[in-house]
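Aim 2, interim progress: modelling of the uracil-bound target.
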Amino acid sequence: MRLDKLLANMGYGTRKEVKQLLKQKGVTVDGEVVKDSSMHVDPDKQEVSVFGERVEYMEFIYLMMHKPPGVISATEDNVDQTVIDLLDPLAQHFKPFPVGRLDKDTEGLLLITNDGQLAHNLLSPKKHVPKTYYAKIDGIVTNADIEAFKQGVELDDGYVTKPGELVIISSGPMSEIELTIQEGKFHQVKRMFESVGKKVTYLKRLSMGSLKLDELLAPGDYRELTQEELEGLKSK
Ligand code: URA
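Predicted structure of the complex, ligand included:
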């Protein structure tokens, strides 16, 4: 890869700005000052530094965000703040996008990456990646609902859902549940409860495949995935 491309990709400015860095003798490859921005380097084998600081080349970025309510799971929006707006400029430089959507009022686990292949695999209906949600429900959730979700329920557009696993945490006028589904239809959890005459008043995603929301992340915070978390997702 060209040295100027590598440095530009890693957030050291435009290719023109990178040229200036080289002119200032700020860039070394394997300890040698380099002036030619078109030089080809192998980031896996060669050590590139800028003003003495080693550049760790990364092509892909993988972030776990605790999406807060009130922001949109999109890269751009004319009205609302997006999850990408919450990232620092260095992370934004990788042009990441959210993997799937959570509603504006839903919070919880959101994977943000620029790895299109991984996103495709996780979202593919063929892969049946399970997603678990915690929800508060206006209404008494019953064993009949567990059975209905296991069989599949008909949504308002006639679509019949695949089996979902409903666990009742507490049942009363305001119930608490966990629901695991293997699809991601629009507003699916809310619509599944509507189909049994109940309303979701709070929704939070807890997990997606092997990836679990790090409860140490406050709403709006994010961190890189650990190697183990990434390997777990890729092995699906
Ligand atoms: N189901 C919903 O209804 N909303 C979400 O944000 C995610 C799943």
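The chain has a mean pLDDT of 96. The two ends are 30 Å apart (CA to CA).
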